[in-house]
Specification:
Layout lengths: L15 H12 L3 E5 L6 H8 L5 E3 L7 H12 L4 E5 L4 H4 L3 H4 L2 E5 L5 H14 L9 H11 L3 H16 L7 H18 L1
Parallel strand pairs: 1-3, 1-4, 2-3
Bound molecules: adenosine-5'-triphosphate (ATP) and magnesium ion (MG).
Length: about 190
C-alpha cells in the first residue's frame, strides 16, 4: 500500500530524492529556485512540497523589479520563496539580481527511462487504456521519444488515450507527440 497524498498533491514518479532535498532546504528556511526545461516537472514539484506561508513564484521568468523588490522584502523578513523557472541565470530571468543570490538553485533533471515508462503506464491506466493494448516495444519507443521529460510522456499518453476512447488505433509515440502538440496549439488559437 502507498500512503495517501496529502493536500491533493499529484503523485510524482521518480522524484522522491529531489522532493526530500527541497523539503530539507525549506525546513532550513532557505529560499529555493527550481530550474529546468519546459515539461520537466518543476510545477509538479512545487505542488508536492507546497506548505502554507511559502511565497511561490511559478513561472519565475521576466521578473519585474516590483516583483523582485517584493521577494527581497519577503526574504529579508525571514520568509521563504519557492520559485520555478527555466533557467538559473540572472541574465535570463529579469530583474532578479538582488534576490537570486539569496536562493538555492536546484536543477530538475530528466527522469530515467524506467521512471518514464512507469509514468506512461500510470497515465494510460488512469485514462482507461487497457495494458494489453500497449506493446512493450511501444513503451520503449515512447520512453525514447519523451527523453526523460515527464510532460512529453503525459502528452503522448493523452493523445493515445483520446484516440483509444474514440475507438481508433494506438499511434506510434512519435506521431502521438506531434498530434498532441498540434491539437494543443489549435486549442490555444481557437480559445
Ligand atoms: N515526476 C512526475 N510524475 C508524474 N507526473 C509528472 C511528473 N513530473 C511532471 N509530471 C506531469 O508532467 C506534466 C508537466 O509537468 P510540469 O507542468 O510540472 O512541468 P514544468 O517543468 O513546470 O513545465 P513548464 O516549464 O512548462 O512550466 C504535468 O502534467 C505534470 O503533472
Ligand atoms: Mg511549470
Amino acid at each position: 500500500m502507498t500512503p495517501h497524498d496529502k493536500g491533493g498533491a499529484p503523485h510524482l514518479v521518480g522524484r522522491a530524492a529531489l522532493v526530500a532535498q527541497v523539503r530539507g532546504l525549506l525546513d532550513a528556511r532557505r529560499s529555493v529556485l527550481l530550474f529546468g526545461p519546459p515539461g520537466i516537472g518543476k510545477s509538479a514539484i512545487v505542488a508536492a512540497v507546497f506548505r502554507p506561508g511559502l511565497a511561490v513564484v511559478d513561472p519565475f521568468e521576466h521578473v519585474s523589479s516590483a516583483v523582485a523588490a517584493k521577494l527581497r522584502r519577503v526574504m529579508e523578513a525571514d520568509g521563504i520563496v519557492l520559485a520555478a523557472g527555466r533557467s538559473a541565470r540572472a541574465a535570463e530571468l529579469g530583474a532578479v539580481r538582488r534576490v537570486l543570490w539569496r536562493m538555492v538553485a536546484v536543477r530538475v533533471g530528466p527522469l530515467s527511462g524506467r521512471d518514464i515508462r512507469a509514468l506512461l503506464c500510470e497515465a494510460l491506466d488512469a485514462d482507461g487504456v487497457p495494458r494489453a493494448a500497449i506493446a512493450r516495444s511501444w513503451l520503449s519507443e515512447a520512453a525514447l521519444v519523451a527523453e526523460g521529460v515527464p510532460g512529453r510522456a503525459v502528452a503522448v499518453a493523452r493523445a493515445v488515450a483520446r484516440r483509444w476512447r474514440a475507438g481508433r488505433s494506438v499511434l506510434p509515440p512519435r506521431l502521438a507527440l506531434v498530434v498532441e502538440r498540434q491539437d494543443g496549439l489549435s486549442q490555444k488559437t481557437e480559445g
